[in-house]
Amino acid sequence: YLNRTPSSAGNRRTWTWSGWVKRGKLGTGKYSLFGGSGTNSMIRFNNDDGGDNLRVLDAATGGYDLITDRKFRDTSAWYHFVVAVDTTQSTAADRVKIYVNGAQEASFYSSSYPTQNAELTFNNNISHTIGYAPGSAYHDGYLADVQFLDGIAASPTDFGETDSNGV
Q: Residue 46's closest CA among 57, 59, 36?
């Protein structure tokens, strides 16, 4: 896994994580894609409800916890995930958006959204990890073109585009 501790905090209200992910293992592990050290803040594959959903979580005061209804069980597929956070939005559901392969997730197994203007864990001057999160398992699979944008709530079109053939 990769680990970096920023020397100073960035924008803790607005940020985006993007990455291409290919799973190598399914099932019982909580395989993390991104984590905040020493906290319960992560993007991971979840196994709490039968498994293989995507879970985005920040347990900071005023934080969020979303688990997709969709299961990610194809170990031959590459998935493009975008998690865009902007706690300054007035509508709760607009404060955390999850996109999979360019489409916004709209159906959740469970969801709780951050309070307006909450300063969250990510983008603070703590250890940030790619491919691992404390209390979870190391990601088993591949990660490519992972990006973290400070102060920007981006959409999937900011990272690429689909051509006329759907590629």
A: 57
